[in-house]
Amino acid sequence: MKFRQIEAFRNIMLRGTTAAAAVEMHVTQPAVSRLISDLEDSLGFRLFDRKKGRLHPTHEAGEFFRSVEESFLGLEKLTSVAEAIRSRAPRELKIASTSAIASTLLPLALKEHRKYYPDEKFIIHTDGMAEIIMKLQSNAVDLAVGLQLPQLNGIEQEFIGNARYVFAAKKGHPLLKKSVVTANDLAGESVLTVLDTNPNYWNQLTCAVNDVSSELTRHLFIDTSHTGYSMVAAGLAVGIIEPFAARVWANHEVMTRRFEPAIFYPYGFSYPTNTRHHPSLYRLTESIKRCAKSMPEFIKTDDQIE
Asked: 248 Cβ partners below 8 Å, 6+ apart?
């Protein structure tokens, strides 16, 4: 961390733009931008969000600026302030999750996490894929857990495991007499249909019932699995659906069976590339992975013999 970098940062905070800072420092605008980039690298956190060609100070920038402005603060003291900001655990973690994971895996992981961070607060958003992507890309959440997302710029991902989707029906349904329900068995049934802004993601489900598609009744369209399970519990339809929420709905006379052809969907957690990886956030992701391994809904890759 060098004096000219601090000077560039201070001038941008006081004058609002790199252009104004460049005039004050008698250098070019690209030179100021480079000084800020080098300063961010040395600090280990972002000072500005870059949107539509303008710089917007981050929360960390405001905190760091207050120390910069204090009289007689030497560079050694500034370095220690930066280290404190970088290493401090957040007061709260903001998490986005699909409804099924929010009601099954996430509570297990948070319960384990509280052993290490008992006072930490959590803000949990239950969202569909489109909303989760939007929140990740806008840095509105620290972490997202659920169906693995498509590859996206600015988002890092880690695989948790694959889940095999199941046939679900209300207790007493004739198809529950079978140990394995096939696509052909669905002919004449009212079957749930997933409604999503990215329908291509659900091609596996579509293709699995393609041969009997014309024989299915599709009156119910759902955007969350819990809604789907509630429709099944009411006897309004059957579904080929994720297996996690089945444990929640078992007390509502919803039962599941193995479905053929096998349908596997990957699950994982994601976070913005520029997210600071605080110790508590790292600990939470480790808890998520550990709890996922204990859940029978996640199938090991070696077990996918179809």
From this structure: 103, 104, 226, 229
Predicted confidence (pLDDT) per residue in 103-135, tens digit: 999 999 999 999 988 888 899 999 888 889 888
Cα–Cα distance list, 209 to 173, 213, 254, 262, 272 (Å): 19, 6, 21, 11, 36
**CB-based contacts of 195, cutoff 8 Å, min separation 6:** 221, 222, 223
**Residue 145: beta bridge partners?**
97, 269
Peptide bond into 261 cis (omega under 30): yes
Total residue length of the chain: 306
Phi-psi category of residue 128: left, alpha or beta, with phi > 0 → left and psi -120 to 50 → alpha: beta
Task: Tell me the per-residue pLDDT of 268-279, one tens digit each, with 9 for 90 and over.
Answer: 999 887 665 678
Q: Residue 37: count other Cβ atoms within 10 Å of its Cβ.
A: 14
Q: Rounded distance, CA 272 to CA 287, Å?
A: 19
Is residue 39 within 8 A of residue 8, CB to CB? The reply is: yes
Separation of first and last alpha carbons in the chain: 57
How far are the Cα atoms of 42, 110, 158 from residue 263, in angstroms, in the given order? Answer: 47, 29, 21
Q: Where are the beta strands (DSSP E) in the chain?
A: 48-51, 54-57, 92-97, 121-126, 143-147, 155-164, 166-170, 180-182, 193-194, 221-222, 239-241, 254-260, 264-272, 298-299
The pLDDT > 70 percentage for the chain reads: 87
Measure the CA–CA gap between 101 and 242, rounded to whole angstroms: 10
